[in-house]
Specification:
Strand order of the largest sheet: 2-1-3-4-5-6-7
Number of helices: 8
Distance between the termini: 33 Å
CATH architecture: 3-Layer(aba) Sandwich
CATH topology: Rossmann fold
Radius of gyration: 19 Å
Largest sheet: 7 strands, mixed
Number of strands: 7
Length: 212
């Protein structure tokens, strides 16, 4: 497949490389001329893609995402699709979908987890949208997710992916807080000589193992 990737930072840049490594053609755009972008504007990105186009937006949530989607809405054609893979608020997704629908442009949201390790390990993907659109974009999702049967889910309709990612982030922050408190407890104890070594020992075989 062809994919337009907008935003080639720490996440988007690595995701573009993983997708390309799977055999897909990636046309990349970023504001920074020092990035690995292949085009210098959104207009050039759209022109470089064959219809129906698939464009993944991986920029900061809020104004940056809104302005990018608004500009794409004026450049894309009916039948094209936008996937918002950033950390947008789930309530923004319904608004984007409603604004794009009269133009015949499809929209999905995708919560992405994997950090800088995702380029090698793969990414967990929580998608919001309809099943037909999901199947259209599945080859890209399959290129991004880890090997095996897990890591990819159609969580629900538009907004469902970012809602699931919001819950995921809440769990993540809770885990990090627990790790921090556990480490601090060992530091204050006279019975543990090396708290860091203890936490490292939990990385394999432990019920609390995590690369967090």
């Amino acid at each position: 497949m062809q994919l337009g990737m907008i935003g080639l930072g720490r996440m988007g840049g690595n995701m573009a490389k993983r997708i390309a490594a799977a055999g897909h053609e990636v046309v990349g755009y970023d504001h920074s001329p020092e990035s690995d972008r292949t085009v210098a504007s959104l207009k050039e990105l759209v022109a470089a893609l064959k219809a129906p186009r698939l464009v993944w937006v991986m920029v900061p949530a809020g104004e940056a995402t809104d302005s990018t989607i608004n500009e794409l809405a004026e450049l894309l054609q009916p039948g094209d699709m936008i996937i918002d893979g950033g950390n947008s608020r789930y309530t923004d997704d319904a608004r984007h979908a409603a604004e794009l629908e009269p133009k015949g442009i499809h929209f999905m949201d995708c919560g992405v987890s994997g950090g800088v390790w995702g380029i090698d390990r793969g990414y967990a993907l929580m998608v919001g949208g309809n099943k037909d659109d999901f199947e259209t974009a599945r080859p890209i999702f399959e290129a991004l997710k880890p090997e095996g049967d897990s890591g990819l889910v159609l969580a629900g309709p538009v907004g469902g992916g970012h809602f699931a990612k919001m819950v995921h982030n809440g769990i993540e922050y809770g885990m990090m807080q627990a790790f921090g408190e556990g480490f601090a407890t060992m530091v204050k104890s006279d019975l543990v000589d090396d708290p860091a070594a203890v936490m490292s020992s939990w990385r394999d075989g432990s019920v609390v193992q995590s690369w967090l």
